[in-house]
Amino acid sequence: MVEYRIDRRGGVATYLQIVQQTKQALRMGLLEPGDRLPTAREVVEATAINPNTVLKAYRELEREGLVEARRGLGTFVRATLGTAPADSPLRGELDAWARRARAEGLDREDVAALFTAVLTQHFEGDDEA
């Protein structure tokens, strides 16, 4: 099950953070079709956000065809985005790179800027970038 982390200082709407984190879990293979997402109540208890925010995120995921709400049962994954499993060797390489970047004094924003620049360079014009 996915555990949502809300960054209240990041400038990204809370419901979008839930959507993005769910999509990331789908892409990494941490969530698969048939898995149940946490209930709105569980997310509210873990993050102290408004239940309507959770429901808005789940509606957006449902609109995109990634999840489906089943009355009285919860919200379940319908589709996956995953082609990069969590245990990919590339993850280990990226982890080592991130450790090195941090050891050299880069902060989160510096690393994100570098990574985004490299993604743009290599995936320019792709729908995924």
From TrEMBL:
Q: Name one Pfam family in it.
A: GntR
Record has Mitochondrion as a keyword: no
Q: Which UniProt keywords apply?
A: DNA-binding, Transcription, Transcription regulation
* Keyword hit for Transcription regulation: yes
User: Which range is the signal sequence, renumbered to this chain?
Assistant: none
Q: Where is the HTH gntR-type domain?
A: 12-80
Report the protein name in the record: GntR family transcriptional regulator
- Naturally occurring in which organism (per UniProt): Streptomyces hydrogenans
